[in-house]
Amino acid sequence: MAEVTRRGLLRTGGHVAAAVGLGGLALRGGWLAAEPAFAAPRPALDREVRIGYLPITDASALLVAHERGFLAAAGLPSAKPTLFRSWDTLAQALAVGDVDVVHLLMPFAVQLRLGKKVPLRVVSWGHTNGSTLTVGPTISQTEQLSGRTVAVPSWWSVHSVLTQRILATAGLKPVIGTPASAGTVELVVMAPADMVPALASGSIAGFTVADPFSAVAEAKGVGHVHRFLGDVWKDHACCAITVREDLVTQRPQAVQALTDGIVAAQGWLDSHRSTAGELLTSAGYLPQPVAAVSKVFTRDPAAYTAVDRHADWHPERLGFSAYPQATYTSALVDLLRVTAIDGDTSFLPTDAASVHAELVDDRFVLESLRRSGTIPTPRAELIEP
Predict the structure, then answer these.
(1) N or C terminus of the chain with fewer C-beta within 10 Å?
(2) pTM for this structure?
(3) Which domains are assigned to the chain?
(4) What would the pLDDT profile of 272-314 be if each residue is shown by its tens digit?
(5) In this model, does residue 35 exceed pLDDT 50?
């Protein structure tokens, strides 16, 4: 792990990040132009913070915040992140206190907080974009998925929400728990690690999930990108940095240090795209081939002109934006209300805007961004399947 000083925490990589605007953020002086927002006279916790993650590139900012020492520099030493194989086990670990912070599917966070009353809060976004609908080699049109099966990682995922919109736009009806027939597509939940083998065997016709699994399917020749989800919903957040609520109420300085580290890590990732994949694989965080992981950070948009409908959105680009936009949360809840889900949805309020205040605590990331010279600005949600 490279040594990072507290003074240098929010300077690393700023010369690159200053030139770009991501996720509706106007940048002033770069991502990392200031010192950490919280200068703790003592460690933010009396122990190392415990991180949980799934082995996908959506976890990159959280992993890099640990590996590059950004959390420690902010006053929050962290234990080596713990890898989980499914969203359910990751969420359970957070709920019972085995871990303190995770990257979590935003719709899953909504369900856990509002439906299951799990005491958690979203404190920042971890990334934007970074997911694909990947299909078998013989499929070139969405309509060819009629009568077939497509896998998603969770009913409570942006992947399921946007896959269903893509299917509906093509005149196909998603069905759950019923074999597909003409005009329908059966959706099944599958662990991300099982999706590429299932596509290779023909047991599914496609899958929608976070990278690097589309890159792995491409490398193996068993599938190709049909749509980037960022081409359906511009700069959407699949996963958010989520903590136990007692960390917010009892140790707010720890949460401040966490968001300082996340902002710093995002800046580092955006300015080290050519080496980010090697770092994540060589350090043992992601088990996929380094070439596939690296591709996620460096995809050439020219290679995907045939599938992109909004090339100016750069949907192939895994983005990094920390501020959790309220308009996004509201739009997500509205979409969840009209999405087929295997489970109770009665807790979803008709007042979608109220969910953001219940779920998200943006005080800490706002302070981190303010100190870094980044000013969050409102944005319009663009959803055009």
Answers:
(1) N
(2) 0.90
(3) 14-129+236-376 (3.40.190.10), 131-231 (3.40.190.10)
(4) 999 999 999 999 999 999 999 999 999 999 999 999 999 999 9
(5) no
